[in-house]
Amino acid sequence: MSDRTILVVTHTGRPAALRSARLVVERLIAAGLGVRVLEPEADDLALPGAVVVSVEPDAAKGCELAIVLGGDGTLLRGAELVREAAVPMLGVNLGRVGFLAEAEREDLNDVVERVVARDYDVEERMTLDVVVRVNGEIVHTNWALNEAAIEKASRERMLELVAEVDGRPLSRWGCDGVVCATPTGSTAYAFSGGGPIVWPEVEALIMVPISAHALFARPVVVSPNSVLALELAAETPPGALWCDGRRTVQLPAGARVEVRRGTQPVRLARLHRAPFTDRLVAKFALPVKGWRGRR
């Protein structure tokens, strides 16, 4: 038995995902690698050769790699498990777009072969650290790989908030919310709100107001060393903070949300070195007919 261990995370609610995960686990074990699976997923996977671990921040501790099979939500869940342990995550897309994924369902055999051969690279993606203050006191801290979104808590009334960059006020918006995103998250919620697509190797923070009633309500891109802040007005209805669409906390009127570059990145395993442009074209099925390139 090898001293190499791989954590396998999957979406057990999808039969296709279960079949894919079983194939991956069985082939890894056959190649002599140790495999961990998460306790809530173990019964559905029914693989006696795998070690069952609890869903804890250190579930991936000591692993060489985590293979995560599923859609964007499953990949973001995988990021929660690997970040503190600094273990690379290799995503296999079983959903729709899957920008965080490095491979597709039909690539499973190649994925296993490349992992067994240690034939992959690792890159770091910047994250966000998020602090919520009420009356000057820190009441909540969190982090995000894609985005931290401040949203209205009810449909009836807009949020009233003031945006700040590096300690200076930028604008006041009546809006449905504001998304603060990383370059990795620029193709997710921020993109849906009209934000720019930022190439992953560009280090920056992105702020996108959502449905803002204001003359100036454009997305802004600032230095990765900047600090973004959103202050809810004293007369505004309550809001909510969502980190990666998975972790949430309520925001009372007067709350202040500060967003800065995260101290701990997420590491992604890469099998291919194709340009991000090619990935963008493939994921969004962009029309490129007529391109002739350099001659």
Automatic annotation (TrEMBL):
Listed InterPro entries: ATP-NAD_kinase_N, ATP-NAD_kinase_PpnK-typ_C, NAD/diacylglycerol_kinase_sf, NADK
Broad EC category: transferase
Residues that, per the record, bind NAD(+): 72-73, 77, 146-147, 157, 176, 187-192
Compartment(s) of residence: Cytoplasm
Gene Ontology biological process terms from the UniProt entry: NAD+ metabolic process; NADP+ biosynthetic process
EC numbers: 2.7.1.23
Source species, domain of life: Bacteria
UniProtKB keywords: ATP-binding, Cytoplasm, Kinase, NAD, NADP, Nucleotide-binding, Transferase
Keyword Transferase: yes
Active site: 72
Gene Ontology molecular function terms on file: ATP binding; metal ion binding; NAD binding; NAD+ kinase activity
Its biological purpose: Involved in the regulation of the intracellular balance of NAD and NADP, and is a key enzyme in the biosynthesis of NADP. Catalyzes specifically the phosphorylation on 2'-hydroxyl of the adenosine moiety of NAD to yield NADP.
Descriptive protein name: NAD kinase
Native source organism of the sequence: Embleya hyalina
